[in-house]
Every structure is written in structure tokens, then in C-alpha cells.
Amino acid sequence: MVTEFSINNGWLAIKANTSEINSKIISESCDDNSDSLAVVKSSAKQSLDVKTVLELKPSAHCDERECDDISLLVIHNISLPPGQFGSEHISDLFLGKLNPDDHDYFKDIYQFRVSAHCLIRRDGQIIQYVPFNKRAWHAGVSNFAGREKCNDFSIGIELEGTDELAYTNAQYSQLQQLTTLIMQTYPEINKNRITGHCDIAPGRKTDPGKCFDWHKYKSVL
């Protein structure tokens, strides 16, 4: 089955066999920090396991954009603990629920109020935390083409990975499909306005790292 995505009110939705699966989000408010926001149910009876492809986990770590344009896509990487994959720790960080007792590394970061719009896991699953029309807190101090505060006008996509390890084919496939949809929905974003975190925060950030294949990623856009 070919999985296609759409964007509704800033949130991703899945289309299966051209019939849209209506995922119900309990709340779209970035101010509501209820654990119930992580619950996503599908009202459609489909053989597709929606949660393995897309999961919506609204985060309180976002706010309204301070400008009208959405004109930049920023690619990041993240792994928690560093170099380890497959846990819920990344989501816990973005949802403000990271337990400092779970790992020594977490004691220095568990209070960070950060987020990205989406995470693409090693198996290709997409988790969305912030609607694209809201401002996620992913870039920090940053500058693109002389314009500062990139969070204001950008979308941030995290890849589960490290600078030193190759990304999976599933991640490239999902990132390409997601990027194409973002470019269609927000036409001010084009191939020249897709960048790495390392490029908008040089000297401070290095992701997505030397193992990210920019040619492979952009070749089908």
C-alpha cells in the first residue's frame, strides 16, 4: 500500500488508497500540557497500522510565529542517549517529560524547553509534535542569509541519528515525501531554502552531520 500524506490545519494526516484516514487529535493547543495529547486514534477501518507510519504528539513547547512567512526547512539529527535509538526519550524531551534519573546525560538537558515539528525515526515512522503553522523551538540562536531567529520562519525536521552514522533508506524516503508536501503547502520553501542546523548555527551545531547525503535527499525533490 502506498502511503500519502496531507496537511490539515498544520498537522499531518495519512491517506490510504486515496481515502483519507481521519486522525483525531484531542487538542491542537500548544498551551495544553496534558498527557492525553499524545493519544491518537483513527476513525477509519484500514489494514494500515497508522501508528507505525505517523503519530501525533502535541507539545507545549511551541508558540505563535512572529512573522507571516514560512520560508525555510531545517534538517537536524538527535539521539537520546547519544548514539542510542528506539526509545521514547526524544519524545519525552520534546514533551517536557524527560526523566533525569533514566540516564546521566539527561541530568543536564531534562529542563530544556525544545521541540521540532517532526521526528523521523530509523524505521521511517514520523512523529509530529508541533503544527507547521506554529513556531517550534528547534533552531536556537541562528541566521540564514542574514536573517536571524530562524525559528520564526522555519520548519524543523529531526532525524533519529548521529553525525557519524549513515541514515536509513526509510528515513530518506519519508523525508523526501514530507519535504515535497511541505514545499507544495509552503511554496516559499524551495530547494535553495533547505538547510542543515550546522549551516544556520555554525560553530555551535554540527547536525545533520557528514553522513547525511544531501545529493541523495535533494535528487528527487
Structural class: alpha/beta
**What spatial order of strands do you see in the largest sheet?**
6-10-9-14-8-15
N- to C-terminal separation? Answer: 22 Å
User: What's the Cα radius of gyration?
Assistant: 16 Å
Q: What's the main sheet like?
A: 6 strands, mixed
Basic shape = globular
Helical residue percent band: 10-25%
Q: How much of the sequence is in beta strands?
A: 15-25%
Number of strands: 15
Run of helices and strands? EEEEEHEEEHEEEEEEHEHH
**Poorly predicted tracts of residues:** 18-48
The count of helical stretches stands at: 5
Mean model confidence by pLDDT:
87
Overall description:
By secondary structure, the chain is of the alpha/beta class. It is 16% helix and 25% strand. The model is unreliable at 18-48 (pLDDT under 50).
What's the structural blueprint in terms of helices and strands?
Elements: E1 3-8, E2 11-16, E3 19-21, E4 23-25, E5 40-42, H1 50-53, E6 54-56, E7 62-63, E8 72-78, H2 89-94, E9 118-120, E10 126-128, E11 135-136, E12 143-144, E13 147-148, E14 154-160, H3 169-185, E15 194-196, H4 197-200, H5 214-218
Parallel strand pairs: 6-10, 8-14, 8-15, 9-14
Antiparallel strand pairs: 1-2, 2-3, 4-5, 7-11, 9-10, 12-13
Summarize the structure.
This protein is 16% helix and 25% strand. The protein is of the alpha/beta class and 221 residues long.
Key attributes of the depicted protein:
221 residues; alpha/beta; 5 helices; 16% helix
